[in-house]
Design a protein that fits this description.
28% helix, transition metal ion binding, transport, BSH_CusB, HlyD family efflux transporter periplasmic adaptor subunit, MFP_Cation_Efflux
């Protein structure tokens, strides 16, 4: 991952630059000193810049392919409520629809049968109520025994239940409560039913055709509710991603929150990471493939630093931390890497400043002040 011979070649060419910057080079010793002096003027001459440590954090990984998908409860399939023939289409593909908006109309004798059953159940319920009232009156006059009233009450309860069942069948078919009451009260039958949208969304697909004969439960169209979207990111098998870690889409003002990593490993030795889009939902469309940058986690947390901020000496990794005198070489352990970023463990604290550029020059100054390779 790191080109040590090239780094050492660069280091050997630095002493001249250090002398020009005013840094003295002393005799070579066995071990370099931890702290060495570098003035602000020398830092500027060498092009050394520092970054202040904030808190341990994951590092942004390489961009991975991700597909924009709908959550299961946001992808709504509209199916035929009854057998019939589609006699009117009221929407087109990619139309934006609102809850309750008419989508299409189905001419259906089966829908008429459902209304007829409700009418018959309602008539029986009315008769049962009249019978019970009459029985109560006869009981009060002492003409009939109490058992007759109990039987009338049971008959009325059964008739009322049949009405509720017939109303539920109509509602399941797509009729609203007002239409069901109208059919029961007026005895008027509709020969067609209008299918309406049950949520806001986008008409993602339209399979129904005008004049098509459909069976109950046949798929007619799909409505995509774009209020929430997910990203399905393909990450290398075994990748540890912190829950709720922020995932970004390079080049777009879009971010997502990591939810879970699937347990199955695909043929490409990848696993599927699901993330909920928290920003920029309106900039994505279901089915679209984008590049997503996923942060890598390290056990126990770690400090995220640029690749160029870490140098190696005797197979040990170091970073240079700003001190009152100059810099201190602090040993660190690299726990993960991706692209131009590293995550390290070490004796580092929030608020410290770490050199992130011209680290080779600082290494030469460090070795020159206290020792060599």
């Amino acid at each position: 991952m790191f080109q040590m011979p090239r780094a050492r070649a660069l280091a050997s060419a630095i002493p001249g630059a250090l002398l020009c910057a005013g840094l003295p080079l002393s005799a070579i010793a066995a071990e370099p000193a931890a702290e060495f002096a570098v003035s602000p003027a020398q830092m500027q001459s060498l092009g050394v810049t520092v970054r202040k440590l904030d808190q341990p954090a994951a590092i942004a990984g390489l961009a991975s392919p991700a597909r924009v998908v709908l959550p299961p409860n946001q992808d709504i399939m509209v199916s035929a409520p009854v057998d019939g023939v589609i006699d009117r289409l009221l929407i087109n593909p990619q139309d934006v629809v609102k809850t309750g908006q008419p989508l299409l109309r189905i001419a259906s004798p089966a829908y008429g049968d459902l209304q007829l059953k409700l009418m018959e159940a309602d008539s029986r319920a009315k008769l049962a109520r009249q019978t019970m009232e009459r029985e109560k009156q006869l009981l009060a006059e002492g003409i009939i025994p109490g058992r007759r009233v109990q039987e009338a009450q049971a008959a009325q309860a059964g008739a009322d239940a049949a009405v509720r069942q017939a109303e539920a069948a109509l509602r399941l078919a797509g009729a609203d409560a007002a239409s069901a009451r109208k059919a029961a009260a007026n005895g008027s039958l509709d020969d067609a039913i209008t299918v309406r949208a049950r949520s806001d969304g986008l008409v993602a697909s339209l399979d129904a055709k005008l004049g098509q004969r459909v069976k109950e439960a046949d798929p007619l169209l799909r409505i995509a509710n774009l209020r929430e979207l997910w990203l399905e990111v393909q990450v290398a098998a075994g990748t540890a991603v912190p829950r709720n870690a922020e995932i970004t889409v390079p080049g777009r003002d879009v971010s997502a929150s990591a939810m879970s990593v699937g347990s199955l490993v695909g043929e490409g030795q990848t696993q599927t990471l699901r993330a909920r889009v928290t920003k920029g939902v309106d900039k994505l469309r279901p089915g679209e493939v984008v590049q997503a940058r996923v942060p890598f986690a390290a056990a126990g947390g770690g400090w995220g630093l640029p690749l160029a901020s870490v140098t190696y000496q005797d197979d040990k990794a170091y970073v240079f931390v700003r001190s009152t005198k100059g810099f201190v070489a602090v040993p660190v352990t690299v726990v993960s890497s991706a692209g131009q970023a590293l995550q390290v463990h070490g004796n580092l604290k929030s608020g410290q400043e770490v050199a992130v550029t011209s680290v080779i020059a600082l290494k030469s100054a460090w070795l020159g002040m206290g020792g060599g390779e």
